[in-house]
Amino acid sequence: MGNKNISMAVIRRLPKYYRYLADLLAKDIQRISSKELSEIIGFTASQIRQDLNNFGGFGQQGYGYNVEALHKEIGKILGLDRNYNAILVGAGNLGQALTNYTGFKNAGFDIKAVFDANPKMIGLKLRDYEIMDSDEMEKYIVDNAVDIAILCIPKNGAQEVADKLVKLGIKGIWNFAPIDLEVPNDVIVESVNLTESLFTLSYLMKEGTEI
Amino acid sequence: MGNKNISMAVIRRLPKYYRYLADLLAKDIQRISSKELSEIIGFTASQIRQDLNNFGGFGQQGYGYNVEALHKEIGKILGLDRNYNAILVGAGNLGQALTNYTGFKNAGFDIKAVFDANPKMIGLKLRDYEIMDSDEMEKYIVDNAVDIAILCIPKNGAQEVADKLVKLGIKGIWNFAPIDLEVPNDVIVESVNLTESLFTLSYLMKEGTEI
């Protein structure tokens, strides 16, 4: 695809557009100007036009945006016009929470198997899953089409698991381990570091103002 | 404090510095040059110097950084030289996972009470907590010193809860509800939107390269 020069800041705004457009659709709103969209979403109208121009515009002078069409297009840009098979590694508290959350499946991200290294966890039922032994992960990936691995494991061992996943051809890792994984360029790691988010909150509270 | 003009990008890198410096301390490494730090952390040495200069530098020509002192200073900058009393609202899967994670308490963020609106949840034990009725939240906040509220509730109702929290003087909200909360300027909201993170992953996978 040809979007290599889109900045990460723009990319991180796209899911937000997608969410607001879904809200508008749910309210049966058919079209919206960039000014109105700006009032709802909190970006300037010029920012919105600039952002969307990166992907070809979509707006029509004097008409604004067709909400349904724009929602669909942004979904396509985000890669949401297909389904993803995921596995989850690490069935601790957070892993269980993610497995139990049905919103991901509704968005096309389907957790197909859950692995844990703790013998006490293996074989336990978690929603529709029987937790599998992490030692079986490699065989599972060989035998099944897996697009994304969700890592909910501690820092220690996370790089080793990532190395295995990469070797088996996994191209997307959603990483909750508090470590910056090293992977080849063609593998995407998207990390969620909750502690870093919490420390950002305390920093901003200390400064006493939102930025 | 005087750091109002620090960009959000710099701020979001601070917890990462803090984490890497803690790793170095754990390995008993006393000092490090910005070049060495750069190799570990993956930012350029000039970026590191620039970032830290925002807060007064800390490095000494020809010596580099004193790891322990820098770790401590960044901790102070992040507001980690004090403790925070938190309450958690919404004891579903994610709320339970956050409550059960001991790392936050170790970092000075102590969840003191857990609330839920679901009658089936109220009174249940969650770690050391008996889940309290959300209707008691306001009284609890009046009677106890609460710094931070962690919102693990659905989108609907989240703004209403935030409004209550603001009214009661809460200055920090760690928000996991998929909604952009509207709060006065002196209240900080730090949001974690897992679905947006997942959509960023799928976007980057579609583009086939890390940015």
From TrEMBL, chains A, B:
Residues 79-180 form the CoA-binding domain. Keywords: Cytoplasm, DNA-binding, NAD, Repressor, Transcription, Transcription regulation. Residues 16-55 bind DNA. Gene3D superfamilies: NAD(P)-binding Rossmann-like Domain, Winged helix-like DNA-binding domain superfamily/Winged helix DNA-binding domain. It is found in: Cytoplasm. InterPro entries: CoA-bd, NAD(P)-bd_dom_sf, Rex_actinobacterial-type, Rex_DNA-bd_C_dom, Tscrpt_rep_Rex, WH-like_DNA-bd_sf, WH_DNA-bd_sf. Homodimer. Modulates transcription in response to changes in cellular NADH/NAD(+) redox state. Belongs to the transcriptional regulatory Rex family. This is Redox-sensing transcriptional repressor Rex.
